[in-house]
Amino acid sequence: MGTGCAAMLLALGSSPAGSQQEGRAAPAPVAEPAPQNAPAPVLSAAQVVVPTGTHIPLVLHNGISTRTAKPGDPVYFETLFPILVDSKVAIPAGSYLTGEITEAKRPGRVKGRGEIMMKLTTMILPNSYVVNLNAAPTNASSGGGETVNSEGKIVGGSGKGSDAVTVIRTTAAGAGIGAGVGAAAGNIARGAGIGAGAGALAGLSAVLLTRGPEAELPRGSTVEAVIDRPIYLDADKVQFTGPGQASSMAGPPNRENSRPIPFPF
Length: 265
Hints:
Helix content: 25-40%
Strand content: 25-35%
Distance between the termini: 152 Å
Structural class: alpha+beta
Shape: elongated
Radius of gyration: 41 Å
């Protein structure tokens, strides 16, 4: 009897605990910490696009001449005016552009003009942001007779007008010298004629034996470049609050496309 009661009491005492244990909710799973070296999600940054065909006014920092230029020589430019995209400054004035000469040809002795071809490959904004680009000149102001053709090639002046001037000057100078010699010999007209002939021959020799005018872009020459493909700029790197400022640089002096005149004319 005692043993049966004890067993019954033990069963009754353990029943509530067992029921309570069975009624408890399962513990929530514990989230595992994220790996420390997990890569951050890649976010696409907004970009400012300078479209193909944009014209960029530039000033040259290093002089170029077909007399010494060769392919691979560097060229250094600076922007003169800010470039706007959606009414905001994308390329401030005072940005630097670098590139290289790809072709240089000296003028011929009888015909053929000096030619320079270059490409611009890199732009450095005032905040040191470096951008790749592909641009070529469309026109140039060098103080001489240089022009830019449809291929972006800078072509020197022909020198034809100056050649005629060279012959005229040497003819006149020769006539003057001959007249002086003729006066001393008692025949001014003959001396002038001989001198004029000698001067004309000297001028013609100068035209035939010397090269035509070199194609040149002196320091301070202005060039307008056009980009051949869009320039993509990170928006957070082109948040300029002003238009920028280009270096003050004197323009090149006016030059004559002329051949050297032989001594003593």
